[in-house]
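Suppose you are handed only two things: the residues of a chain and a line of SMILES describing pyridoxal-5'-phosphate. What would the bound structure be? This form records exactly that question and the answer produced for it, so the two can be stored side by side and reused later without any lookup.

QUESTION INPUTS
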Amino acid sequence: MNARFARRMKAMQPSSIREMLKVTEQPDVISFAGGLPAPELFPVAEVRAAAGRVLAEIGPQAMQYGATEGILPLREKIAAEMNRRGVACTAEDILITTGSQQSLDLLGKVFLDPGDTILTENPTYLAAIQAFQCFEARFVPVPTDDDGLIPDAADKLAGRYKPKFLYTIPNFQNPTGRTLSRTRRAALYDVARRRGFVIVEDDPYGKLRYRGEAIPPIKAWDKEGLVVALSTFSKVIAPGIRTGWAVASKDVRDRMVVAKQAADLHTSSLDQIVIDRYLMDNDNDAHVECVRKAYGERCRTMEEALEEYMPAGFSWTHPDGGMFLWVTGPEGLDTHKLLPAALEDCVAFVPGRDFFPDASGGHCMRLNFSNSRPAEILEGIKRLAGLCKGASNNIQRRYMHDCFNTQSRTR
Ligand SMILES: Cc1ncc(COP(=O)(O)O)c(C=O)c1O
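ANSWER OUTPUT
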């Protein structure tokens, strides 16, 4: 075909995770690759009952077009939830989106011209890289450590590159599982205020905390309307329902509404009304508590298995919640090259490099623990550790060989 595609398609790569999911769907593969919640914990019976009630009681109304902002009763419930998290807002401030992923696309449309700079964590969420690449953004990664991104570094980079916004996942970050500390949230907000950029705060995982005290969202500090807070029902009910939300100041929200009208008119009326009914008829906090307990156990199992089986030279994060743990191997390890052998051994992970806008991190990998049961986690980590040991020995042999050759050349 002789079609002339848009220039932006050159920068857009298919998600390696979506591609890999095709392989990992095979039943004998233990997959730590996808970012999937545990399907056995979805509240299927409760959603079925809610959907049945909605269709029986207000059928045609639930199947009609609706307002772009989303249905009012659900926006009221979301506003109440955001207030509980420490964000002062009303239903007026909420835009319901088709998953929080849609907000990333809408924010790209609202803020980004080709070549505009954005700051991100390094590493960051793969599908955010994809979403912002569509708008030909220039990524400037901000260094991170165990407490999340470093505000002083963001300050210097913002002074130099004048970003339109900074994108961050403050709780149990995807991919590292790290959490931005309270002090850093306040400091980062201060940097944004001084430097005059927007913060996009993406928080799909905040409710899935297994250890420690909840930390208020950065939006809780926001007196100037600089923060766009995103969240979703994907991890606390089910991702297939594709319903999330954004809390933003009026000038940003109005523009997101216009962009959303062009994208999909509104998020599925039926999905919104079913969620609203589900929330009225059920105690979703009790449901989230079950999910938290199960994921917390899976996270501990993975940490213990790594402790027992991984060879020297590997380290990993200890997330306080969420769905991911991040493993760092010795310099010289290439996890992209390790992956085919892992798949042969029927275990999967995501190579780290894909999460770095600057393509560093080739010696890292992301492991998901929410979608495997404890016995599978144990077995999968044993297999992975065996492969890591082999790779690590090869690196050492290469190193010795290089040292030997250098010595004989200098003699
Ligand atoms: C950081 C982050 N943001 C956004 C999303 C997308 O979530 P949703 O299902 O609400 O579109 C995900 C999903 O994994 C995520 O990890």
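WHAT STANDS OUT: The two ends are 61 Å apart (CA to CA). The pocket of pyridoxal-5'-phosphate is lined by residues 35, 99-101, 125, 169, 174, 202, 204, 232, 234, 239, 244 (CB under 6 Å).
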